[in-house]
Amino acid sequence: MRRAEALDLVISDVAGLRCRFDFAQRIEMATRWIAPVAADATITLRTDMLIAILSNPGGFDLRSAQSMRLGGARIEGSRRLAAYWFQLLKRPDATQRASLARAWACAPTSLPCVPQMAHGADAAQQTENVIEALRRSVPLHLRGVLNWPETGWSLADWRNREGATALSLRSASGSATTIGEFIDTFTSAAESQSPQDRTEAPYTDGCLLPAAWDARFRMPVLPASAFGDAQLWFGQRRECALVTRLHCDLANSFLAHICGRKRVRLYDPSQEHALYALNTFNSFRPCRVDVAEPDLVRFPRFAEARGIDVLLEPGDLLIIPTGWFHCVWALDAVLSVSRFVSDETVAQLRSTP
User: Fold this and answer.
1) By residue range, what is the domain housing residue 81?
2) How far apart are CA 151 and CA 143, in angstroms?
């Protein structure tokens, strides 16, 4: 039997308001107790942030601009346990369920590899091919399509040129973090030999792209108006453990890769049963199984899952349609930018002459 874990929720602007959640065979909550041991994770947030989360189960995202304005959430201890607690509060809305239903109906179930499109294709033809791939729910790997000069930068270049740029990311102490400070954590984390540090090496987990970079990293192929806010995926090499655990998004993801190499594994939407996808989700749907170290005793159906791998290098763009499950390994220190396009926007683009 797995050890029970405990999580404390602290409401910072209400004196003494602290709740403990014990995760065992069932989840139990207590607001008054004498804790014999420290919690495995502690979440600290303000009342207005908690209200925003509970009032929007179909759309809240801790990484969003609204969440940052409300102070976000400070997490100490196990980020995995804290992420699971937040996940249990989520519920998909009707539009999100319809997007998944469309993916299940359209996506191929026996794709041998991800189709590639090399740099140099006619721009109009490239756009048509991308829209058609999204219509058919087929991933697409565009190689060398990004003409951003930053795709030639090293990690040292990022430290020297953008070290003072602030991230939409806060440390465990609650203080803001810059690019330079974040890169500096790579060295100390690499020197640690603890299992936790090896599997939780520094990574931004899709925080908001710094505002000053927004115009600088506009996506190619589709018009800028088609895309939502950009997210930054930046962190240390983690070749054996995942930097992004298995999940699917409820919109079409455009992942622009800028620095280092990433390995992405994709599973078609029909495999959700074998992937142990959670039923509590909103903008993305995580899976319980760890692809890097699958526990086939707890998750025996995963032995039936069939994934396809893509190696991303600087300058590449990977398009992942709605509902396709994917996870990521960082073969080097890596930096990527992603943006999403809704199924409704894709339908509009298809109907535009």
Assistant:
1) 5-87
2) 12
Phi, psi of 291 (to 5 degrees): -65, -35
Helices (H), the chain: 47-54, 65-69, 79-87, 94-106, 123-135, 155-162, 179-191, 195-199, 272-275, 343-351
Residues 62-119 have pLDDT tens digits of: 989 899 899 999 999 998 899 999 999 999 999 999 999 999 999 999 899 999 987 7
Are the C-beta atoms of 18 and 32 separated by less than 8 Å?
no
Which of 87, 103, 138 is the last residue before a domain boundary?
Answer: 87
DSSP symbol at 238: B
Residues 48, 80 within the same domain: yes
In whole angstroms, give the CA distance from residue 123 to residue 129.
Answer: 10
C-alpha to C-alpha distance for 224 and 222, rounded to whole angstroms: 6
pLDDT at 174: 58
Report how many domains make up the chain: 2
Looking up residue 200, the CATH number of its domain turns out to be: 2.60.120.650
Per-residue pLDDT, averaged over 149-155, amounts to: 96
Residue with tokens 């073969």: 331
Q: Is 211 helix (H, G, I), strand (E, B) or coil?
A: helix
132 shares its domain with 80: no
Query: What was the pLDDT predicted at 196?
Result: 45
Kindly compute the dihedral angle of the four CA atoms of residues 218, 226, 90, 323, in this order, to the nearest 10 degrees: -100
Shared-domain flag, residues 105 and 74? no
Three-state SS at 197: helix
pTM of the complete model:
0.91
Q: What is the pLDDT of residue 168?
A: 85
**169 and 52 belong to one structural domain:** no
Which CA distances in Å does 207 have to 18, 169, 211, 216, 343? 27, 6, 12, 17, 23
* Res 37: pLDDT: 77
How far lies 170's CA from each of 49, 109, 203, 296, in Å? Answer: 16, 40, 12, 35
What is the phi/psi pair of residue 251, to 5°?
-155, 170
